[in-house]
Amino acid sequence: MELKTEIVEVKQKALIVSKVNHSFIDSLKSQLKKNSIETYFSSHRPKNLNNFDYCFFVDEKILNLNKFSHPKKKIVHTLKILNF
What we know:
Elements: E1 12-17, H1 23-34, E2 37-42, E3 54-58, E4 74-78
């Protein structure tokens, strides 16, 4: 009997939700890419977050944050971006 071992790398996925493409978002995408994380950008929040390992909500008003919490998901929520 011959055994075969294969290592499969599954890339993690990150979603960035923002109505405005702020200047720091490109830096965030770059850092995520360096860590082998596929990055997706959307101006609208999806109904289902199951496809993503990380979710970044920028300037998004989330009325029911519990709806978007998940024990296996990493969610970052920023309320306000200040312009200097």
